[in-house]
Write a structure and sequence with these properties.
The chain is α/β, with parallel strands linked by helices. It has one domain (2-226): HUPs (Rossmann fold, 3-Layer(aba) Sandwich). Helices cover 30% and strands 28% of the residues. The chain has helices at 41-56, 73-82, 100-113, 134-142, 195-201, 211-214, 217-223, 249-262; strands at residues 2-6, 9-11, 20-23, 28-31, 37-39, 61-68, 86-91, 119-123, 146-156, 159-166, 169-176, 179-183, 206-210. The strands form three sheets. The protein has a nine-stranded mixed sheet with strand order 11-10-9-12-8-1-6-7-13, with helices on both faces. It has a two-stranded antiparallel sheet with strand order 2-5. A two-stranded antiparallel sheet has the order 3-4. Helix 2 (73-82) packs across helix 5 (195-201) and helix 3 packs across helix 4 (134-142). The protein starts with a strand and ends in a 10-residue tail after the last helix. 33% of the residues are buried.
Amino acid sequence: MHIVVCVKDIPNPEAPAALYSIDSKAMRLVPVTGLSNVTSPFDEQALELALREKDRRSEVRVTAISLGAKSSLQAVKRALAMGADDGLHIHDPDARADTSMVAAHVLAVAIRELGRPDLVITGRQAADWDVGMVGCGMAELLGWPVICVASRMAVDGRVVEVDRIIEDGRETVRTPTPCVITAANDVGLPRKASLRETIKSGKKPIVVRELHELWPTDRVIAAMPALPRRVRLYSRTTSVDCQYLPGDVRAAAQELFTLLRAEGFGRREGHA
């Protein structure tokens, strides 16, 4: 059985916001020099789901895939140290696949080239942009069923059974493989990389592919009109303009009413 897990290398969500700035022209987040990235915690839970199945069945093979800049290779290496068997890094030096649906297209192509995996598992969302579209997008492109926010997974032959979180509790669903599963927070804490697996990970194979090999530039241009694009990235403004109204309550109320009318509040349509 072959399980593919998508892992994303992201800025540390626990780091203070003051350690980051926004490049509004390039529309990207810029960390201070020397700040290390981490694997998205949701993706670590997805990997934990896959590794639990591997613990149950020795014939399970787990492949970790990461899409992104050179630093994304570290997410693959961390997955191998946790227990994945091999990895694939799709190198995207120019951040051409930094939006969710472009990433879903690229990952779907890469997964098809791996043959026919039985399962693809992702986190419920990435912990940097919190969009949560990649898993469902891949399933649509691959033509596979998708089960979201899974807290438990068990495979029996060609059928996978999943407990998933719903608003009022839990439900258990089954679907044939291949399929896509997104992991819920309720999976629990992912395992730590053991010394044994860390030593073994240095000998585990990692394939590096360039993005243009899987998703040529002309293909990106042709697809862009139909895909969401980031058009602006900026810091939220938190400044507040306060005015203090001295005097008695009646005078303050009249002054407040005058200020609100000046801002357009309290006017009925068709009246000055």
